[in-house]
Amino acid sequence: MRLARAAASALLLASTCRATDLLTPEKLEADIKTQELQRVLWSLNKIANDNGGTRAFGTAGYKASVDFVLERAQTRFGKHFNTYLQPFNHTYEQTKSVSLKGPKGETVHVVSPQYNPGTPLPGGITASLINTPVNDTTGSMCFESQWAGIDATGKLALVKRGTCAVADKVKFAKAKGAVGVLLYNQEPGTDYVAPTLGEANIGLLVPVGIIPLEVANAWIPRLAAGEDLRPTLLVDAIVETRESWNIISETKTGDPNKVVMVGAHLDSVQEGPGINDDGSGTAAILEIMGSVKQYDGYLHRIRFGWWGAEESGLIGSLFYTNSLSELEADKIKYYFNFDMIASPNPMFEISHYINSGIGPELLAEYLESNGKNVTYAEFDGRSDYAGFVELGIPTTGLFTGDGAPWDPCYHQACDSLDNINWEAFTVNSKAAARAVGVLANSLEGVPPRQRSTPFLRGRDAMTHNFRRWKALSEHAHGSVSCSHGKKKLTV
Ligand SMILES: *[C@@H]1O[C@H](CO)[C@@H](O)[C@H](O)[C@H]1NC(C)=O
Ligand SMILES: *[C@@H]1O[C@H](CO)[C@@H](O)[C@H](O)[C@H]1NC(C)=O
Ligand SMILES: *[C@@H]1O[C@H](CO)[C@@H](O)[C@H](O)[C@H]1NC(C)=O
Ligand SMILES: [Zn+2]
């Protein structure tokens, strides 16, 4: 009797809208609106426009992006979420300008490699050019023996590109006293990709300018004839440690020991505003957050992560996962990664690995019921899932493709509001919201974190691979080879 009365009064409460509004996958899905996603991307695009066209690590555009997310997570939604900034440091590098004047003061086409040391400013380096031998079989000036008998003291060394790392050639040149290196391409033309000198070589090199083969071919006979050619190389570069931040925000509701996590990177590349990469993921999880805050009664805690410095080599997310204790890692029951989910000519690719559990199925189910052709790919270490996979946490992700034909504006200034397929963006965001909603209420089909002995061999191999990927994922300036992209060019 008393019980019945209690139930009746609970019903009464519910009918007067005082009771909790239960979170369901359907509600989260329905709350995702194209117009709201548009608003977020419009804001991120404006942030880039107001800050030199970029939201990259180490720039004012990144800070403004952090403030934008905090304004929601911390200020507007503060009643429902606990939010904190996780600071970390990383090397910022940027060639602000590079120029080369030939012996007669003529302008010569020149490209700067990543992590190029700067020359003195404003004059640059003017010095006599010295030619060095070529060996296209073994590589030119790749071995100490090839430098035997060469004295480059106070000179600019003219060296052919290819075969070994550029940084190796430059180290030898420096050891022989060179004040700079003019590296000429093996192929004619000016359409070449800048390599990286590697973060590990900071402080060990001299400034480098990469010039066309045709220019070197014109200078070499003149040097052989004994002419003194004195070009001027100017590199205005910054290489310094800068602070950056991940934003972590989680619901105040749900079991704190059972966390469903969703993540996207908040930084862009220096070359552009990063609206598809990864404004799309950023906006999707912000909108999921805005939906979640309206509901109650779910079993598991929902945690959101906006990662910094992804484009510099997954720096923020790896800092986060490396900082987790075993205990904290165990609490993360699932991680969803959303990086590039609105490519203008999209594929609908679901990334997975051996311990992805039900996640891919949840995403595929919704996409296929909306007429999408889903494809699958094994995780390859090119986005922020890497650290979670490394920890054996069940993980999946959505990806609509980078580079032509999927996203020809990948890592370029044109990755702006015009670079978005709004229909694909909305469907993917809804698929994401729904999957989060399912796991917020039930972990059925979610495997435990995978760190038991039977998998040890695989895990060791994977850890090794991730170290390799991490090493390869340094950003190449002016090229499209970044975290998502092709392997980092060092040669
Ligand atoms: C980042 O570097 C600054 C300056 O060296 C230092 O004060 C700060 O503690 C560093 N932060 C982290 C997270 O290492
Ligand atoms: C290149 O180096 C190899 C190995 O030292 C040598 O055998 C070959 O003769 C060299 N070629 C030229 C063109 O110097
Ligand atoms: C879906 O993919 C299959 C296999 O690649 C292909 O044959 C089919 O044409 C695709 N359908 C659509 C609608 O893209
Ligand atoms: Zn990305």
Automatic annotation (TrEMBL):
One GO BP on record is: proteolysis
Q: Which residues form the signal peptide?
A: 1-19
> According to the lineage, what is the superkingdom?
Eukaryota
For this UniProt record, the keywords arranged alphabetically read as follows: Hydrolase, Metal-binding, Protease, Signal, Zinc
What's the cofactor?
Answer: Zn(2+)
What family classification does the UniProt entry report for this protein? Belongs to the peptidase M28 family. M28B subfamily.
Q: What is this protein called?
A: Peptide hydrolase
- PANTHER family given in the database record: METALLOPEPTIDASE M28 FAMILY MEMBER (PTHR12147), PEPTIDASE M28 DOMAIN-CONTAINING PROTEIN (PTHR12147:SF26)
Task: Indicate the segments forming the Peptidase M28 domain, all copies.
Answer: 246-434
Q: What is its EC number?
A: 3.4.-.-
GO molecular function annotations of the record? metal ion binding; metalloexopeptidase activity
The PA domain is annotated at: 126-218
